[in-house]
Amino acid sequence: MKLRIFSSRIVFAASAIFSAAVCNAAGAVDFVKDVQPILETNCLSCHSGEKTEGDVDLSSRETSFKAGGDMRVIVPFKPEKSALSTLTALTKDDETLMPPVKSGGPLDRKSIATLRQWIAEGAKWPDGVNLRARAKRSVGTPNSDDMALVRRIRDVIIKRTKSENKFADYSAAVAKTGAHYSMIAIKAGEFVMGSPSTEEGRDPNEGPQIRV
What we know:
This protein is mainly alpha-helical.
């Protein structure tokens, strides 16, 4: 997450504000449980260590609260004046979005609301808690935004298959990302998977062929 600080007026996404209201109803935000994972997974890879992007170090309370130019990174009780809240709530097509799209942004709506509520509640950061960058999970349960996209892709494929009354190779771009994907139609039947044991250069540790 490359956090750049801008003095220009920030326009908030209505969805982020709505999500924050929902989050408020759920109770106070716990830094270690709710905020630390968001920062360590999405921000610390660029904003910690000897060389930090934009001279913004989010690895400790002291450095985080001091960071920022015309707009501070964290201003307790004022999320609208905190870059950590305003820049993460921007739309995907805004070039000042943090983290940028190429770095995995935007955050999911729940994370955006959590950061905003945490700051609104005073940005409480326990003494002695320092952060370290952690890798994003490559597997696991998708968030609600991901699942909605998966369902839309599935619906499109099923609709096209029914209208054409046959299975065929299919390729398209994922909505709003431009990422391409392809699906290959396979005729029904019995197939043998895996390479034969007599194949030249075959890894001896490979399992046997199986029928599916």
